[in-house]
Each structure stands twice: as structure tokens, then as C-alpha cells.
Amino acid sequence: MTGADEPDSLFGGRLRLFQPARGAHRAGTDAVLLAHLFEPPAGATLCDVGAGTGVVGLAYARRVGARVTLVEREPGLAGLARCNVALNALPAAAVVEADVLAPAAARLAAGLVPEAADFVVTNPPFLGADHRPSPNALRAAAHSLPEGGLAAWIRTCTWLLRPGGHFGLIHRADALPDCLAVLAGRFGDVAVRPVHARPGRPAIRILIRAVKGSRAGTSLLPPLILQNDDASPTPESASMHCGSSWD
């Protein structure tokens, strides 16, 4: 395990998490929002693709009793994810070391099973190949995709999801056209929720839900506002971050 000596406490202490040392990519608000995107029934199978240390998938395992697979390429992060499964006593969660962008044969060899998940959630790397990478290797890997990487990433998510299954992701607001283009023909019943830092400001993130194989149309949901004008958290944001909605 390579990370901080003491675990962080998330969701009001309902989840504890070993994370990489400061300077690497660590779970934040994006993970919190993605962990509340769905309300799966108890026992549903869920894949967290690009799971990092596992915060999103483990939140679903703790909150609703989902059976979770954490998919992570980097061995160090996968090791931390395994520690976090044990730390939180969540035996229904498993870690699979696999490259999301690898060919299907390699994914199968790593232990991934196609069309087995009821839900797939993902926080894909947000930056393209033209962005200057971070000098921290783990942070760079967590933030950057090669040319065409987003389409390949979502294709793997589609491959993991059963027909009629639910897909969810969070991304930058300006990536909405690219996300919708990749979903077209594979998903319907697409619901987009913009996320704003404060009222009256442009969206900084988008949350997208979609159903594999559905023919239903696309809807734009009311915005999620993270902070009031005085920088205090909105009730919805506070509830998600402290885990009070889990009770």
C-alpha cells in the first residue's frame, strides 16, 4: 500500500478511505456527486470504472448494499482500493486490475465479465492528449486520456453493462457534446443535470444518466447548485457530503 498513513473519513464517517499522499489525485466533490447519482436496489451489481481508491463504488456498497466491482488500472491505486474494501468491511466489493482502454481479450483475461452489471458509474479522465500532464504520474494518469480515449472508455462501460442497464458519469460541462455523441445509438433515456458552483454562474460539471438500448429521448434536469452566494453549502450539497441521506 502506498498512501497516507491514516485513512480519511468521508460521508460523515460512514466510509473510511486510504488515499494517495497529497499531490496525487484524491477523491473530492466529483466522487461525492457520482456516488449519489443512482438509487440502486439492494443486491444490484455495479461497476465503478476507473475506480481509483474505490470511493464511489464503496459508497454504493455501504449506502444501498450493492455488489460492487472496482475497476482500476494502476496497481498502487488498486492496492489501496483493496485495503479500503477490508477497512470498511465490505466483502461484496471486489477489485479488478484492468485497463479500460485495452482490447476485449485483455479485459476478459483480467477478470471483467461483459454484460453483467446492472449499473456502471464512471468518472473518466477529463483532459485530452493535448493537455500538459501533471508531473505526478498517478495524477496525470487520472486526469488525461489519449486521442479518442473518451469514446473507447464509454465503449468499455457499455460492454460491461447488461441490456437495459443504467450508465452514469460525471464530466466537465464543456464535454457535453462529446459525451452525447458517444452515447448516441447505444443509450437512450439520457438525463443531463448541470452542476454549478454557485447560483448565476456557468455549469462546471455535468451528471449524465442513461439506459443501455433504450429508445427514449434526452432530458435536461434542474441544476445542482453546490454553494450559496455566501459560499455556504446548499442543503442538497451538504446532505451528500455528510452522508445524512444514507440514514
Cα separation of the termini: 31 Å
CATH class value? Alpha Beta
Radius of gyration: 17 Å
**CATH homologous superfamily descriptor:** Vaccinia Virus protein VP39
Instruction: Calculate the mean pLDDT score and round it.
Output: 92
How many individual helices? 8
Biggest beta sheet summary = 9 strands, mixed
Account of the 3D structure:
GO terms for molecular function: N-methyltransferase activity; nucleic acid binding; S-adenosylmethionine-dependent methyltransferase activity. Residues 31-149 form the Methyltransferase small domain. This is tRNA1(Val) (Adenine(37)-N6)-methyltransferase. This protein is an alpha/beta fold and 247 residues long. The chain has one domain (8-242): Rossmann fold. It has eight helices and eleven strands. The chain has helices spanning 29-34, 55-64, 75-87, 104-110, 137-143, 149-160, 176-183, 235-242; strands at 8-10, 15-17, 45-49, 67-72, 93-97, 117-122, 161-172, 187-196, 203-212, 218-220, 224-225. Strands 3, 4, 5, 6, 7, 8, 9, 10 and 11 form a nine-stranded mixed sheet that branches. β3, α2 (55-64) and β4 (67-72) form a beta-alpha-beta unit. α6 packs across α7 (176-183). The longest helix has 13 residues, at 75-87. The two termini are 31 Å apart. The model has no long low-confidence stretch (mean pLDDT 92).
